[in-house]
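Technical annex B. To support the medicinal chemistry partners, we prepared a structural model of the target in complex with thiamine diphosphate, based solely on the information shown next.
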Amino acid sequence: MTAVTFREAINRALSDALEEDDRVFLLGEDIAAAGGAFKVTDGLLDQFGDHRVRDTPISEQAIIGTAIGAALKGLRPVAELMFADFTGVCYDQIANQLAKYRYMTGGQVTVPVTIRMANGAGGGFASQHSQTVENWFLNIPGLKIAVPGSPADAYDLMRAAVRDENPVLFFEHKSMMNVKGPLGENREPSPLGRAAIVREGSDVTVVATQLMRVRAEEAAASLAGEGISVELIDPRTLVPLDMETIGSSLDKTGHLLVVQESPFAGSWGSTVLAALALERFEMFDAPPAIVCGDDTPVPYAGSLEDAWLPTAERIVDGVKALVRG
Amino acid sequence: MTAVTFREAINRALSDALEEDDRVFLLGEDIAAAGGAFKVTDGLLDQFGDHRVRDTPISEQAIIGTAIGAALKGLRPVAELMFADFTGVCYDQIANQLAKYRYMTGGQVTVPVTIRMANGAGGGFASQHSQTVENWFLNIPGLKIAVPGSPADAYDLMRAAVRDENPVLFFEHKSMMNVKGPLGENREPSPLGRAAIVREGSDVTVVATQLMRVRAEEAAASLAGEGISVELIDPRTLVPLDMETIGSSLDKTGHLLVVQESPFAGSWGSTVLAALALERFEMFDAPPAIVCGDDTPVPYAGSLEDAWLPTAERIVDGVKALVRG
Amino acid sequence: MIEIRVFEEETQRLFTQNLVRGSTHLCSGQEAVVVGGCSVLRDGDSMLCTYRGHGAVLAMGAPLDRSFGEILGKADGLCGGKGGSMHLTDVSVGAYGSVAIVGAQLPIAVGLGFAARYQGTEDVCLCFFGDGAANIGAFHEALNLASIWKLPVLFVCENNLYGEYTALRFTTPIEKIADRASSYGMPGVEVDGNDVGAVYRTISEAAARARAGEGPTLIEALTYRQKGHSRSDPGKYRPEGELDAWLERDPIGLAEASLREQGVDQDVLDEAHRTAETKVREAVQRARSWDEPELESRFKDVWA
Amino acid sequence: MIEIRVFEEETQRLFTQNLVRGSTHLCSGQEAVVVGGCSVLRDGDSMLCTYRGHGAVLAMGAPLDRSFGEILGKADGLCGGKGGSMHLTDVSVGAYGSVAIVGAQLPIAVGLGFAARYQGTEDVCLCFFGDGAANIGAFHEALNLASIWKLPVLFVCENNLYGEYTALRFTTPIEKIADRASSYGMPGVEVDGNDVGAVYRTISEAAARARAGEGPTLIEALTYRQKGHSRSDPGKYRPEGELDAWLERDPIGLAEASLREQGVDQDVLDEAHRTAETKVREAVQRARSWDEPELESRFKDVWA
Ligand SMILES: Cc1ncc(C[n+]2csc(CCOP(=O)(O)OP(=O)(O)O)c2C)c(N)n1
Ligand SMILES: Cc1ncc(C[n+]2csc(CCOP(=O)(O)OP(=O)(O)O)c2C)c(N)n1
Ligand SMILES: [Mg+2]
Ligand SMILES: [Mg+2]
C-alpha cells in the first residue's frame, strides 16, 4: 500500500484502463506531448503512442463530438477538457447530444464516453476557471457525475467510469492534485453510485465532496477533540446519488450539515437537502444546515478567494451551531 | 382592460420598449422578416425597421456576443434564441462572459442584455427542444431569471427586464403562447424579484411557474370545490427569488407543495425546498412535497410526453396527500 | 426517390390531420442529394443527418412502416416513439442519427470517421447538413479536426438556399459554401443536387479518397426545398417564380427524363410510382394500427 | 514596447515570488503587435484581448501601477482585485476586457463594432486573439457575422506558432490563418508582427476601411512567444534554435535598430530603457504597498 497523489492516482487509472482495453483512447488539448495542463496524463503518450493518446486543436465541440461518434462505433473515449468551465463552449454536445443519444434513439446505442476536467476554486484562477461545474449538469438526465475526494476514490471511480456503458462526467479538483493518500494494488472495481462513509460518527452527519471533503475531514478531527462526533459522508458520485447511505446516517445522527464549494441555488447540496426534507423530514432533530460558497462569481485576489471558499473553521462552526442549537 | 394572449403580451412589451428607448434593439434568427418561429416578434420589423429588428445567421455564440458587446457600449439588446435549449451552443457566452463581465472588471461595466427564449415541454418537440432551461443557470451568479406565467406578467417582466441594468434570461413557455389573460393599459413598472400570490388560500402553499402555474390554477379551483383552500404563489423570477413571500405563505398554511415541469435534481424547485428547510423548518406542519417531471429526457410521443409532464390531477393528488396526511 | 417523395407527402397529410406532433421538416425536392449520397455507402459506413432527415434515413434502408411509426409516436417506431420526426435513427442500416440542433452532427461525424481509422477499417461517415449550418461554430471545429487528422468524413451541405425563412445571402457573405473547404485544406466540390447521378459520382469520388486515407471532403449540393421549412410556412419570403423554376428541375422529374432518354418506358416509371404509393400506403396503415408505447417505457433507455 | 517588456519581466519576478496567483501569460516578444495595433486607435474605439493581455491593456494607456495592483490582487487594482492577470480591463482607456476563454472575445468584439454602426459613429473595435483560437467555433461565427453586417472590427491574430505547448502545424491544416478570411468574404492580410511600423500601417489601413463602412479585416501578425505559455513551462516542444532565431528578430531590438538607422542616438535609447525601468519599479513598489481588498468587497459588482 503506497501513498500516491490525486494526480498520480488518476494517471495510474488511465494507464491501467488503456492497458486493459484497446478500445480506450484519450483525447484533449495538450494531453499527449505535454502531459496535460495539470500533468495528469504525463507519460501516457510514451507508454501508449499517439494512436491512443491524442492532442487536439482548441475545439471543445469537436473533442466531445469526436468522443460521441467514436463511442457510437464501440470505442471508449476519455476526453479531457482541461478546465471544467470549458464545458461552456461544448455544453450542447454534452447536454443535448451525449446525455440524450441513447434515449432519443430508443436504446439503439450506448455512448460510453468519459469526460475528465479540472474543477473548482482555490488556485487563484479567477471567475472563468474556478467553478464547481458539476452543478451545471444536475438537471440533465443521462449523465453520470463523479466527484472523487481522495486518490483512492479517484482511481476507483476513473476505472469504473471508463468501464461504464454510460456517459460519465469526471471532475478532478484542481486544488487537490497534490493531496496524498493510500492506494493499494489489485483493487476491486467499485460501482458508480455508492457513497463512502469517510468517518463514522454519531452526533452530526456532514456531507461533502472533493476539496470540501478534505476540509471536512480536518474539521471532523478537530471537533472530535471537542467531543463532537461527526459522521462524514462523501457521495462520490452525484448521479447516481446514494441517498440511502446519506439518509441512514441522518436517521442515526438526526443532524445534517451539507458542505459545498459552490453557491446554493441549483446545486447538488440543495438537491440533497431537498430530497431529505421530502423523504426523511421526521428524522431531523434540528433544522438542517449548509456551508457553501458565496452567491458571487469566484474572485481572483487571494484574500477574497480564501473568504469565498468555505474553510475548515466555518465547517467547525456550522457543526457546533447545529448540535448546540 | 382587454384579454390578450401570452404571445401578444410579449409582442406589445417589445414594441413599447422599442418605442420608449432608442437604445433597445432586437436580434435573432428569423425574428424580423418572419416574425419569429413562434410569431412573437410579428410586425416589429415593419414598425421599427431593420436597423432595430435584425435577422441573424444561425450563430448563437455570435448573437449573444454581439448583445454583450453592444451592451458594453450602452445599448440595450434583446436577443432571441428561438428555443431555450439552444443556450447549449452559447452557454459560455451566457455563463462565463455575460454573467461575470461586471464582476470580473470590478464593476467597470453594466451589461443590460435580455435573452428571450422558448422554454418547456408539451408541444411534441422531443428531447432537444423541450427542456425547462432556467435550471441550467441557477448556479451561475450574475444572471436574473424571469419565468412569466401569465400574459400580464409576461408584459410586466419583459418591460422590467429590458429596463434592468443586469443580464436577464427571459423564458417564454412554448405551450402557453395562446393562453389568454387581461392586460390593462398604462401599467406600473414592476420590479424583478417579487412573487405573485396568484390565489389566496389557507390550507396549502403551492409554488409553481409557467405552464405548471396554469395547471396549478386549475387544480386549486377544483380543490376549492372539495373544501381545500390553496394559496398559489408564482415566484415570477427565480433570480432574484422572493423567498419572503413564499416563506410567509408557508408560515400561514404550514403545508408546501412545489410543482415544476423539470426533473428534481439541481432545479429551482429543489432550491426552494432546501431554502425553506434551512430557514423555516419549524413552520412545516407536515413534510413538504413536490410534483415534478420524470428523471428522463422529454419523450416525443404524445402519450409519453403527457405522462412525463405533471398534470392538474397530479397536483390535486399531491395537495390531498399533503393535507390529509 | 419516389418512395421518399410519397413518404413525405403522406407525412404532410398526417401532419395536417394532427397525427404528427411538434414540427416536421420535409425534404421534398432534395431527394437526389440523400439518395445519391447514401447509395455510395456500404456495410460498416455510417450516416448522420438533420431534423430534415426522413429521406436520408429511408435512403439508408430504414423500413417505411417503422419510420412512420416513429413519426406517429408508436411503440414499434424506430426509436420506440421517443425520438419522433426530428430524430429518426436506425443504426441497423447505418443511419446513426438525426440531430435537431443545427450543426451538432458534424463533430459527431468526426468521431464516426475517427473510429474507422482507429479500428483500421475503410469505413466512411457521410454527414448531411444545411446551408444555414455552415455558419455555426460546430461546422468550423468539425471540418478543421477532420482535416488535420485526415479522417474519412464526407461533409455534404444540402444548400437549399434557405435557413428557415431567411435566404442565404442575408446570412452568408460568400457565394459558395464549398469554398470554405480551403480554410481547412480539404477539397471543396459543388454538385447539382437535383441530379442524382451527379451526386452519386461526386460523393463516390470523395468516398474513394476517404477510404484511401486521404481525408475528408466538403461537398456542396445545390438543391431546393419545395415545401415550407416546417408546418404551416407561408413561404412569402420566396421571390416570385423561384419555386416554379425549381419545380421544373425537380430531381425526380430529371431522373425520369434521363431514364426515358436511356430508353426506359413510361409504363415502367408509372409502375414505379404506383408501387411506391402502394408500399407507402400499406406502411402507413400498418404503422397507424400499431400500439401506443406503454407509459412505463418512458423510463427506459436513459441508462444502459 | 520597452515599458511592456519591463512590466512583463517584473511580473515574472512577482510570479516566482509567489505574489501572482493562478497562471500568468506573458507577451514578451509580441509587443510590436499590440503596440502597433493599439496606436491606431482613437477616442471611442475599443480593444479586446486575451488572458495574454498585459501588453495590450498597457498599450491602450492603462496605468502601470493599477495594472500591477490587479495582478497582485489589490483593492486599487484595475478591477479591484477581482479579475487578476487574466482579466485586466480598463474601460476608461478603451480596454474593454481580457477574456480567458479562448475565442470568446471575438463575438463580443462584433457587438462593440455593431454599437458603433448602430450609434452612427466611426469607432472601430480592435480584437486580438491567438493562432490556436482560430480553430474554435466562436471565431467562425464572429467573422461571419461581422462580415455580413459589414461591421468595423479588426480581427488581429497574434500567430506566435503555439497554442500552449502544441505547435500550429498539429492543429491547423493550412499555412496561413489570414487565408481563412476568404470564407467570410473579407480581406485577409499577413504582417510581420515583430515590425511595429508594419503592424501600425497594416492595421491603420484596415481601420480606415472599417471607419468608412467597408467592414472587417482579418490580420495575421506573425510573431513569437519568447517565454513559456504560462508559469513553469519547460519549453521542450520548441525545435532547437527556434527561440534563438526569433530572439534575433526581437521586436524591440528591431525597432531600436530602425531608430538608430534614422539617426537616433544610442544614448536616447538607453535612456528610454532606464526610464521604463524606473517607472515600472516605482509602479510595482506603489502597487505592492497598497491594501488588500476589503473582504466584503467580494459581494460587490455582481449586480448593477
Ligand atoms: C443551434 C440551433 N439554432 C437554431 C435552430 C433552429 N432551426 C432549426 S432548422 C433551422 C434552419 C437551418 O437551416 P439549414 O441549415 O439551411 O437547413 P435546412 O432546414 O434548410 O435543411 C433553424 C434555424 C436549431 N435547431 N439549432
Ligand atoms: C475554450 C478554451 N479552451 C482551452 C483553454 C485553455 N487555453 C488557454 S490558452 C490556450 C492556448 C491558446 O493558444 P493561442 O490561441 O495560440 O494563444 P496564445 O496563448 O498563444 O497567445 C489554451 C488551450 C481556454 N482558456 N479556453
Ligand atoms: Mg437550408
Ligand atoms: Mg499562440
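Notes passed to the chemistry partners:
Chain A touches chain B through 56 residues (CB under 8 Å).
Chain A has eleven helices and 14 strands.
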